[in-house]
From TrEMBL:
It comes from Ditylum brightwellii. It comes from the Eukaryota. This is Uncharacterized protein.
Length: 551
């Protein structure tokens, strides 16, 4: 959306820079409850409810889970060590011995190692490793989440019921009413309700709604401040950890989404807005409103052929309209309308940057193996969901086809598959690093969540992106036949066709992640153009800065 950016010198057009947010945050008991304490009653930030989760019941074998979690009972012998097959036990012992240094839990991936726990209750498997006992637990046990989104009255039926009956709030009570018995750093998931079995929560409910929570790390992990969800990079929290949040003053590049226009109530056709701070109506059916707004557009616009084509595209490139918000969903549908008579490749590019698609197919904030391992020592793989679906459902399908559409056959008469699981794993690494932009005040947002910007295209965080080559489907690599930067002719930045993007006046703009010293160290040399040079005149343009300059 760079063509829609405007250079603003308004003193109010500012934001908080994320460039210098490098500080260690240890996810221990004190720091977890501190997120609540620092934001409670704040005028500038929403009170944050951050907890480690307890009470989740593991119901699957560690042999079947992509990643299994084990609670460390340090310097303790297992009370009931599982009498596993020798090969399986040795597999667990080896993997747990090399599973990092977290003092509370360890994560392992069995992979192709021998593993058989048939006949054992997954929740009762214990393995002795030297002087420590490891107990198999739910994969999210002692994971730390920002659960603020669950604390709103209409986010959970139990919240409204508790408020109506004068009972403790089921989400907020752990932090607000902390005691020696319940110190406020954890929340117990009520898989088994202490007094009323009718309130028991099945684990499937956790699996369904967990995606609405911001994951921070595991109890005992050390994370970087810059890796916290935007909702936790509030001023009060940054100040406590000594992180300088730099305010960007005049000279900021302000970018809207494609075709975004100012709100003008005089035009009519106004729809109700829902936000954490104000609401234009109470008790309204927002999901029905979204359907009405969409129906009005597609049925009464003059470009009916385009609308029909957009509808057809939307049946292929599907996202679940689970959110009640009108603006983001209609914005996603606009991608199909803009490209109704265009190129399918352009549609794929735009939907790939859509936060709705990234949430739907789970590649939002997918991180490279190297980034995760260097951050906390965990061995993980990039999310494969979108990499698989973009081939299987959106483009080439499962088997190679001839020009007439019939399947290609091998020498044995069997259909030739297009891709293997290894191809999917390779392509999954291409979808790492995609993150939402920070929230802004003039778009619809149903919750106080600075990472809930579903309106603007995502950006790619270079630190979280996988940097290694990705194989294509023809025996080569994506990017083959394109020149490397080191192979370009000398002084390419002065040749015809060189492209310059305007990033504003700040030495560390949001889309660049140079070392902090670039902005703060006066000894670092910077290139300053001579006012008489041709490049200076092109970029300066008599003081009217263009978003893009092509020589």
């Amino acid at each position: 959306n760079e063509d829609n950016c405007v250079f603003s010198t308004d003193e109010n057009a500012c934001s908080l820079s994320s460039s210098a947010q490098r500080a260690d945050v240890i996810l221990d008991y004190d720091n977890i409850i501190r997120f609540f304490q620092l934001t409670e009653g704040s005028k500038d930030s929403t009170t944050r409810y951050v907890y480690a989760i307890l009470g989740l019941v593991v119901d699957d074998s560690p042999c079947n889970l992509e990643t299994s979690r084990w609670e460390l009972l340090a310097n303790t012998n297992c009370a009931n060590p599982s009498n596993l097959m020798e090969e399986t036990k040795n597999t667990f012992i080896q993997l747990l011995s090399d599973s990092g240094e977290n003092p509370f839990v360890r994560d392992i991936q069995v992979g192709n190692e021998f593993c058989d726990t048939t006949g054992f209750n997954p929740a009762q498997i214990e393995v002795q490793v030297d002087g420590n006992c490891f107990k198999h637990v739910h994969p999210a046990h002692l994971s730390v989440f920002d659960m603020t989104d669950w604390s709103y009255s209409d986010a959970h039926p139990g919240n409204m019921q508790a408020e109506a009956n004068g009972h403790e709030h089921p989400i907020r009570k752990w932090a607000e009413n902390k005691t020696d018995e319940h110190p406020g750093w954890y929340l117990i998931y009520p898989s088994s309700h202490p007094s009323d079995p009718s309130f028991n929560h099945p684990i499937s409910r956790w699996d369904t709604y967990r995606s609405k929570l911001d994951y921070i790390g595991r109890l005992g992990d050390t994370v970087q401040f810059r890796d916290l969800p935007n909702s936790l990079r509030a001023h009060e929290i940054a100040t406590y950890y000594g992180v300088p949040l730099e305010t960007l003053g005049p000279g900021v590049l302000v970018c809207g989404s494609f075709d975004e226009v100012p709100n003008d109530p005089s035009l009519g056709s106004i729809f109700d807005l829902r936000s954490p701070y104000q609401r234009t109506t109470f008790g309204g059916n927002f999901e029905q409103q979204r359907e009405v707004v969409w129906s009005t557009i597609v049925l009464f616009e003059d470009d009916q052929l385009c609308q029909r084509m957009a509808w057809a595209l939307a049946q292929i490139l599907v996202v679940v309209a689970g959110s009640v918000m009108t603006e983001p969903f209609v914005g996603y549908y606009d991608i199909m309308v803009r490209n109704c008579f265009g190129n399918y490749r352009d549609v794929l590019r735009e939907i790939s940057y859509s936060p709705l698609m990234a949430e739907h197919l789970s590649y939002l904030d997918s991180r490279s193996h190297a980034y995760v391992y260097e951050s906390n020592g965990q061995v993980t793989y990039a999310d494969e969901n979108f990499a698989r679906e973009i081939m299987q459902l959106f483009t080439i399908g499962l088997v190679w086809l001839n020009q007439d559409g019939t399947p290609k056959l091998d020498a044995n008469g069997k259909q030739i598959e297009v891709y293997s699981n290894e191809d999917i794993m390779s392509f999954a690494r291409a979808w790492t690093g995609f993150r939402k932009y920070q929230d802004r005040g003039n778009i619809e947002n149903e919750q106080a969540c600075s990472t809930c910007n579903r309106q603007d295209p995502m950006f790619i965080d270079k630190d979280r992106r996988d940097v290694f080559p990705k194989s294509d489907l023809l025996g080569g690599y994506i990017g083959d036949r394109y020149p490397l930067c080191v192979d370009l002719p000398d002084k390419m930045f002065l040749r015809k066709g060189a492209k310059y993007r305007f990033l504003g006046s700040n030495p560390l703009p949001e889309l660049m992640e140079d070392n902090d010293k670039f902005a703060t160290d006066p000894t670092i040399k910077r290139m300053i153009l001579d006012s008489g040079s041709g490049l200076y005149k092109k970029l300066y343009n008599n003081g009217v800065y263009l978003n893009t300059v092509i020589l």
